[in-house]
Each structure stands twice: as C-alpha cells, then as structure tokens.
C-alpha cells in the first residue's frame, strides 16, 4: 500500500498510519487566498447569469450509470464509477451538460435558462499547473426552449463576452463556426458523409498544428490530395462574420443545402451581435470544429494570449502534437456522441500538455438533440456556454496582488490592555463587547485567552484583517469607556475614547469612513 | 435492468432507453423555489460564520479510503466507495469533520476557524420527507487551536443560537452535556470502564424511550439493577447549567477526577454563556450522550418542536424503538470511533423513522484527538457545530409563502407593441435596449421571438418576476421614446413616456421606489 501511494505527491507523512496523508490524485483542497479568488469568479459569473434571467439548479454528483452511457464516446473510459455495493449502478458526473439534459427531460421542462456551478469528474492525466484536474469546476449557462433562430445563441455569446470582461480578461477572441457550414464545406470538397467527423477532428487541430501536419492526417484518413487541398481553400479563412460570409458566398461549389442554411443563420447572427455590440470580440474561423459530435449549429470557444503555447516550445510542441495525432487516430474510431458542451479542450492537450498553454477558457455551442436522447417524444433545442473555472483561476491569480487578499472578513478586533496586580484580562467583558458588535451585524473577533498580552492581540488583529480595534483599558473600561482605534495608522494614533453605549454608532461611522480599501479594490478589479 | 430500477421512485419513463429516467435513490434535483430557500439558508449561515472570523475551505468530494477507515465504526458500511479502476482506492466523504481533520493535519494548520457547506454521502435507507437522504448537505463551523478552556466552545454555542434565530427558528433548546461528567457518573455508579460507551449509548435514547426501556437495555448490557438505578438518580436531571452543577456538587460519591473536571469546566462555561446572553436557550441534560465515541468534552444538540415525534404515535414509536434497541444491541459491539461531529442522529432513527420527528437540527461537540489520528506528532484540539440543512429546510419550507418566491431575479422586461403592415417586431431594437440595461447592471429579459404578441410578452414578464416593463411602441419608439410601466398596477396604468436616453435613470428611479417587496420580505423572514 505504501508503495502504491509513494508514487504520488505527498504533503506530509503521518507516522501513525501506513499511508500518505494527501488528497487523491488530481484533486486538491481549496483554501485561503485561492478560495477568495475562486469565490470572486463564481460571484462575478453568477451575477451576470442572474442578470440574464438565469436560475440555478443542483443535480446529484452521481447519476445512474445508464444516463452517462453512450454520451462521451472514447472518453467514457475517463468516467469514475461508484463501486457496486448493491442496488443501482452509478457514476460521477463527467460534465454538467448531460445531467442538465437529464434534468430537462426528467422534469418535462419546456423552457429554462439555467446556470450551474459545480464540480465534475474525469479520470484524466492531471496537469495541475495548467488547471487540468480530475475533480474540477465547470460554470455553465444554458438556454433550453423553442425560440427564433440565433436569438438565444447571440445572447449566450453576449454572456460569454460579458463574463470575461467582467473578470477583467479583455484580450480574448471568441472563435465561431457553424456545423452546417463545416459539413457543407466537406460535402462540397468531396468528403464522403461517413468520413466527415474524422476529417472535422483533424481540421480542429489547425490552431495547434501547421496545415502540412493536418493535411497529412486527412490523407491518412483516406481522403485524396485533391480533396485535402480543396478543404484548405476554405478552412484557412478567418475574419469578421460578414467578411467570411462574403468569402463563402463568392466561393464556387458551396451551393449545397447544409452550407447555405448555415450561411443564412450566420447572417442573422451578424445582425444580432451588432445589436449587442460584441462583434469586435468575435472571429468567424472556418477551421474551428470542436471535439464532440453532438453540436448541431453554432459552435464557439474563447481563447486568450494565455491559451497559446509558449513561443520557444514550438518545435517540441509540433513533435508532441504529431505523436498525439497518431494516438488520436487510433483512439477516435467512433468519436464522441454527445454531452460535451464545453470540454474546454481537456483531452486535446493530453500528450502535448507540457508545451501548450491553458487552451480555451470558455466554450460551447448549440445542441438540439441531446434532450431528445432522454425523452424521445420531445426534443428541446439547447444552446450553452461553459466557463473553465480552473483556467480562468490560473490566469486571474497571476494578476492579483495576493498580499492584499485576506480570507477573513473581520472588521473589528476587541482587545484588553492591562496587567499587574488584580488584572483578570477582561475576558468576559471582551465577550460582552464583541457580542454587542455581532448583534449589530458587525464582523468581530477577540483572542480566545483569559489574559491576552498586547502583542498577541495585535498579531491576532492583523491576521484577522480587522480595520478597527476596540480596546478595553484596565482603568478606562471600569469607568464606562472604550478606546476605538483605526488600525494601520501607526503607534502614535491612540484612537478615540468613547462611552460604552456609543460603541456601535462610533464603530459604524469609522467603518463607513474607511473607504473601499485596497483589498476590496483588488477584488473588484478581478 | 428494468426490474432492478422499477422498485424505486420514477419520475418519467423514457421509451428511447431500457432504464427509468430518474436520479439515483436517495438523491434529488434541487431547483426553483426549493433552491431559493436552500440558498437563503446557506447565505444566512455563512454570513454568521464570517461575522465570527470564519474562513471557508473546499475539500475533494472523495478521499483516500484509508482516511475514512476506522473513523465511523459500524456505520462504515454506509460509506460509498469508488470502483477500483486502477490507482488509488477512494471513497465519497461521509461527513465534513474527518476531511477537516485531514485538512488540518495535511497542511500543518495550527489554528483555524473554518466553515464548510457541502454535500456528504451515506448509503442509508432514505426517508426523503424527513430530510434523510443519501446525498445531503452539511453546514459546519469548527474552531481548531489551543485556546483557553471553554472559550471557543461558548462561541460555538453562540453561533448555534445565532444561526437558528437568524433562520427564524426560535422555539429551540440546546441540550448540553459533558463527556467527562457522564463518564464520571458511570464510574461513580460502578460501571466498568470497558462498558462505559455501551451504557452511554443506551442512556442517549432517553429522549425517545421511557426509563424502563432504557433500564432494560442497561441490564441486558450486563449491568446490575443497583447500578442502573443509581445511574437513573443522575441522568434524570436537566435544567439550567447552574442548577445542574448544584445538583452534581451535592450528589454523593461523585468525587472522581473525571466528574470534578467536567463540573469545573461547566462552571466556566456558565459564566461565558451569560456573557453572550444565550443561557435561556440552553438546557444541561445529563441524559445527552451523542452517538459517537470521539467527543472528549462538551457535547450538544439543538431540538425544536418539529424534532419530536407526533403525539399520537407514541405507542408505535415505543414498539419500534424497542425493536431498534434490540437491533442496536446486536450492531453496536465496537461503537464508532470518531469523525461524527454532527450525525444529527441519522442512524438513531433507522427503524423508528416513521414515528418520530426530524430529530435534532444541529449538533456537535469538542473532539480533541481526531487531528492527532492523522498527525500523531501534533494533536490540535477542535470544537464544532454542524447544521442539518435538509432538516432546517423542511421546517422552514412549511413557514414560507411559496407563492411569493420567484427563482428568477429579473427586474425589467423589454417589450415591443405593434402589428399590422410593415411591423417587424423590433427584435434588434429590443436587444439594443436590453443590452443598455445589462450594461447598467440591471437584470433584464425580453422574449426570444422576432414578432412577439403582447399577451406572450406579458406572460414572459410575469414568469420572470419583472417589476417594470420597458415598452417599444410602433409609433413611439421611432420618435425616440420608450414607455416605462410599473407592472402589477392594473391595465389602466399606461406608464410613463420617456426619451430613450433617459432609460437608465428612469428605470433605476422606479426600481428604487419599489420598496422591499413581498418576495424579499418573505425571504428576509426566513
């Protein structure tokens, strides 16, 4: 047993037992400053979700195994199963999209805008520094319901942009494509329908590989050189939605129904994103394909500078990616079927992970047939976005001045000053005064010692992040007076001596005076 | 497969597949109004935890199996294991206390006040109407660190009272006892040390069984009639802390070290709870023993009228409890060892569950040796409280006017009025106006249709809970004017016609005017 566990990171070896004291591989404890940043991300995003009429739901962390079966293709091997201890067979959820579709089908929901911030589970190879974990958070917003063309889709794009801007990430681009256009291009280039998904997955690698490598893969997948070259004449284009529509309209041979439908839909979208004034964040990129099969319309993913691989690693990356391509070719026989709204490219980085950036930070698309897989009498069209919390976290953490974050929310620290003969430390009195503050809704602490020396009390105050000290002086307090001192203004500031009954109004006044401080400012700037 | 699943509740049978579409047994989806109530409970409690200097942490939902091993005694059979798919063996967490102790030991924490609101997992027999689930929330606050006697303990009791009062539950009592006193009583009555835990677990049933039944169990556990009767002279007492201390001080034969230490500690506590003015909520109850073994000092549990069994079921209850006692006698050979800070009596109700109330709504105690089980070189004393969210939820839900809750947070609904020749529905224009509201931080929605009829837009507004409608009139809007109408004031109110550029200030003014409404008031009264 020791041998098995020794191979993984250990935090501390406890001698009392025969195993290493740690969290399971690919999981971690969240605490302290990381927790503040993470909660701040959640708050920012959920405020935006609510602004758009979103409601939140919570589904069980495990589902009946059959619910997940057949939704993730080859990646099903990454699903965590619960042990068969009698009764139903269950597995931990792999994403939030399949549980959402199950929820919609189960409860006969016809329309909903729901957000869900929760952990999902994948037995993947962890790459913790890049934010790839076995237990990690997804932050999803989805709109289900029969609505007019591209109306919910454009709102999702709006939310995506608003979310990233709200998190102070402004150097991002949202790559867009449309499955119907992509399929239409392949059809026009002579790719047989049965080969479309595998050619599509090769094309999706153009963000990490040069055309030559992708072309090689397409040839290996049984297409002719002529077909491959013809595909290249299309997929090399990216630009504004209207620019690319223009190129597509002028292209020869793209008159098939699928492509024409897709182009018309993108034209409608172009109007709506202009109404929302987000067109400058968007880039229509004909090489975007997204990993999984279940998308039926618009697809998108957001990338930032941190998504890209480091420049000097390009050669290593290229080699690793080729190796990956080979492996993928072997793996991707079936291709995944559904359920992967926003993989955020996890599995795409598997082998090349040491050489590439964090990948896309949010992704999603339209999936009109997933709910129907659970409720075959009624299909509910859906479109959604998933923010990759761990990746956003690693980008944001680099920008934040950690020294200014305090995970405690304490405003006031109650102390006693005294000593010498007959000094009892005023413990009960500190409790009473602190209790008055609590009852007035003020965050307050005191040292849990009978007799607390001054140094330790100031240390406690500093650690707590308190802005004000309320001091019970050995002589002053028995006369009904408290000293109220704003902290961090130097030793010479002795504070204000006030009657005990003025405690609450004076503390409230002082707290109000302390303007939005650095800590709050730092968080607001996240 | 169908046969296996048919035995459990089904929500809907999906014909497309050979299994029932549902959540796993003992789990549920949280949505809509239940979600509002639950979030409101979480907010209330976490605000209080922060007020006391608490910081939150998040641990993985599963732990290495060895971490949980040997912590829950007989109840270990209720632990959910993950399937062995290669690599480490893991299990879902059973409570938040053992993961907390692991966290403290793992990260060499010497002092922390932490709160943790998260799901835990037990393969118990579900009783959903009573709030007993296989996946359920616990809401824990614990203080770890070497502090002066009873100082953190009294603050935990203060938090317990503040939490329940904050949730508008005021008809509660917190039963208190001290493990050292209980052990001292057993010693004084002649119970051999090796029998103390099993006699203790019999005594713990005095809240559900008459003395005769408990006495019978004590005799069955090998004690003499004389010993049992002597125990009764002690454990029948309950009252204020000072009253019971007085009785104990005057009792014959209670001069052993354990009892005397416990009594001294309770004397210190009496002082502190008076400083916090919570003494009236407390009841020193010498029959309180709490299920698990790892408590080392003060123990407590909060009960309300809903905790008690229905009156007319007393006979059934008594029979069922006797049956339970027999079963327990067989089961409880070893007794549990540790980790169960706030079982909230789950397993105690196992057989009698149909006849008893929801049980205790919060519980906890001091456990000074649990961290030391993980880090044997350093033991960190801890004391904590766990609120049973599902039980609080079922009490609170009965009090709330559900009709006044809306899970959406929408304030403004943007509509277009028009029709006839050349009417295009103002979709893009509605998007633009809604976007202006969003950018000003206002929660707003509109109907996702090109041409939306008036009825459907008002239905949408009502469903969204919007307080204000912003109306784009076919004639008015092209003239640069919008109509702003406060909703719910009847048909005759035509609203105010304002220039488009005044949209934000006018909407903000109107929203500010709408005073704290019923919905908010209802939630504030939770």
UniProtKB/TrEMBL annotation, chains A, B:
<keyword id="KW-0436">Ligase</keyword>
<feature type="compositionally biased region" description="Acidic residues">
    <location>
        <begin position="342"/>
        <end position="351"/>
    </location>
</feature>
<comment type="similarity">
    <text>Belongs to the class-II aminoacyl-tRNA synthetase family.</text>
</comment>
<keyword id="KW-0030">Aminoacyl-tRNA synthetase</keyword>
<feature type="domain" description="Class II Histidinyl-tRNA synthetase (HisRS)-like catalytic core">
    <location>
        <begin position="27"/>
        <end position="305"/>
    </location>
</feature>
<dbReference type="InterPro" id="IPR004516">
    <property type="entry name" value="HisRS/HisZ"/>
</dbReference>
<feature type="domain" description="Anticodon-binding">
    <location>
        <begin position="412"/>
        <end position="509"/>
    </location>
</feature>
<keyword id="KW-0648">Protein biosynthesis</keyword>
<dbReference type="InterPro" id="IPR033656">
    <property type="entry name" value="HisRS_anticodon"/>
</dbReference>
<dbReference type="InterPro" id="IPR045864">
    <property type="entry name" value="aa-tRNA-synth_II/BPL/LPL"/>
</dbReference>
<keyword id="KW-0067">ATP-binding</keyword>
<dbReference type="InterPro" id="IPR036621">
    <property type="entry name" value="Anticodon-bd_dom_sf"/>
</dbReference>
<dbReference type="Pfam" id="PF13393">
    <property type="entry name" value="tRNA-synt_His"/>
</dbReference>
<keyword id="KW-0547">Nucleotide-binding</keyword>
<feature type="region of interest" description="Disordered">
    <location>
        <begin position="309"/>
        <end position="351"/>
    </location>
</feature>
<dbReference type="InterPro" id="IPR004154">
    <property type="entry name" value="Anticodon-bd"/>
</dbReference>
<dbReference type="InterPro" id="IPR041715">
    <property type="entry name" value="HisRS-like_core"/>
</dbReference>
<dbReference type="Pfam" id="PF03129">
    <property type="entry name" value="HGTP_anticodon"/>
</dbReference>
<feature type="compositionally biased region" description="Basic and acidic residues">
    <location>
        <begin position="314"/>
        <end position="325"/>
    </location>
</feature>
<protein>
    <recommendedName>
        <fullName>histidine--tRNA ligase</fullName>
        <ecNumber>6.1.1.21</ecNumber>
    </recommendedName>
</protein>
């Amino acid at each position: 047993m020791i041998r098995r566990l020794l191979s993984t990171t250990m935090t501390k070896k406890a001698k009392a037992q025969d195993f290493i004291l740690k969290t399971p591989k690919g999981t971690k404890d969240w605490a302290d400053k990381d927790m503040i940043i993470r909660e701040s991300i959640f708050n920012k995003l959920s405020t935006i979700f609510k602004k758009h009429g979103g409601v939140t739901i919570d589904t069980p962390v495990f589902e009946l195994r059959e619910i997940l079966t057949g939704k993730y293709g080859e990646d099903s091997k990454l699903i965590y199963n619960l042990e068969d201890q009698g009764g139903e067979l269950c597995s931990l959820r792999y994403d939030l999209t399949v549980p959402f579709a199950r929820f919609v089908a189960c409860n006969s929901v016809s329309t909903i805008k729901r957000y869900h911030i929760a952990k999902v589970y994948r037995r993947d190879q962890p790459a913790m520094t890049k934010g790839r974990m076995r237990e990690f958070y997804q932050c999803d917003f989805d709109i289900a319901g029969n609505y007019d063309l591209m109306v919910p889709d454009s709102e999702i794009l709006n939310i995506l942009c608003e979310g990233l801007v709200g998190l102070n990430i402004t150097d991002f681009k949202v790559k867009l494509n449309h499955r119907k256009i992509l399929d239409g291009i392949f059809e026009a280039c002579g790719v047989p329908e049965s080969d479309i998904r595998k050619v599509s997955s090769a094309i999706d690698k153009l963000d990490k590989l040069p055309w030559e490598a992708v072309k090689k893969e397409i040839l290996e997948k049984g297409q002719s050189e002529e077909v491959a070259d013809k595909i290249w004449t299309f997929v090399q284009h990216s630009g504004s939605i209207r620019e690319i529509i223009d190129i597509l309209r002028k292209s020869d041979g793209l008159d098939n129904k699928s492509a024409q439908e897709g182009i018309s839909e993108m034209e409608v979208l172009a109007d709506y994103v202009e109404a929302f004034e987000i067109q400058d964040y968007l880039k229509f990129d004909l090489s975007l394909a997204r990993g999984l099969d279940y998308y039926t319309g618009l697809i998108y993913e957001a990338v930032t500078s941190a998504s890209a691989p480091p420049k000097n690693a390009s050669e290593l990356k290229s080699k690793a990616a080729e190796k990956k391509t080979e492996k993928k070719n072997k793996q991707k026989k079936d291709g995944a079927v559904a359920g992967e709204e926003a993989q955020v490219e996890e599995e795409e980085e598997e082998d090349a992970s040491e050489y590439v950036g964090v990948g896309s930070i949010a992704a999603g698309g339209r999936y009109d047939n997933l709910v129907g897989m659970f409720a075959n009498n009624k299909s509910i069209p859906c479109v959604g976005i998933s923010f990759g919390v761990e990746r956003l976290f690693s980008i944001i953490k680099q920008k934040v001045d950690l020294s200014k974050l305090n995970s405690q929310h304490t405003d006031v620290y109650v102390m006693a000053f005294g000593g010498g003969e007959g000094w009892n430390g005023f413990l009960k009195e500190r409790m009473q005064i602190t209790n008055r503050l609590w009852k007035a809704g003020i965050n307050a602490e005191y040292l849990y010692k009978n007799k607390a020396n001054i140094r330790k009390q100031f240390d406690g105050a500093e650690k707590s992040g308190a802005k004000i000290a309320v001091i019970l002086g050995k002589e002053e307090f028995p006369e009904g007076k408290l000293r109220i001192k704003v902290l961090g203004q130097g030793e010479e500031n002795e504070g204000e001596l006030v009657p005990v009954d003025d405690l609450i109004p004076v503390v409230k006044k002082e707290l109000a005076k302390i303007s939005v401080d650095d800590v709050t400012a730092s968080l607001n700037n996240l």
